[in-house]
Design brief:
It contains 6 helices and 5 strands; from the N terminus they run E-H-E-E-H-H-E-H-E-H-H. It has a 5-stranded antiparallel sheet. It has one domain: 50s Ribosomal Protein L5, Chain: A (2-Layer Sandwich), CATH 3.30.1440.10. It is globular. Helix 3 runs antiparallel to helix 6. The longest helix has 14 residues. It is an alpha+beta fold. A hairpin with a 5-residue loop joins strand 2 and strand 3. Helix content is 38%, strand content 29%.
Amino acid sequence: MKSAIQSLEVSCLLHETEDMEKVNSVVAGLVGSDVTPEVEEMTGHFGNRIRRVSFHLDGIEATKSFQGIVERLPQRLRADLAKNVGQYLDEHSSLFLRFDKQRLVRGEVEMGTNDSVRIKVKPRAYQIRGRADEFFVSILMGA
């Protein structure tokens, strides 16, 4: 049987002043898989080096990883996400979450919009039957 989640992408930007090993370790721990991250080198507006680090998982690995992320969420955050899940869905039924990167490094899982770790969860369309909100609420509240 195929996984209900087609793919999961976790990504963040690392500035030159940040400890790449430390942040990579934290994000890899969030992903919970041995997948090797892709690193894209970029240059910022002022010539500073920026790296985009992303982890891609598919199928069962994506499902396991997302379940692990949900289990790490504080109960109040899960409830808030479930209540407002529609705000985090795009037109393709993908769920987008952003966690504060600096708080993750400190061991806390909290939503954040600036300097965040971005998570995109793409479900298999035929398994959610157009009800992405109900699908994600069941995962958020079932964990």
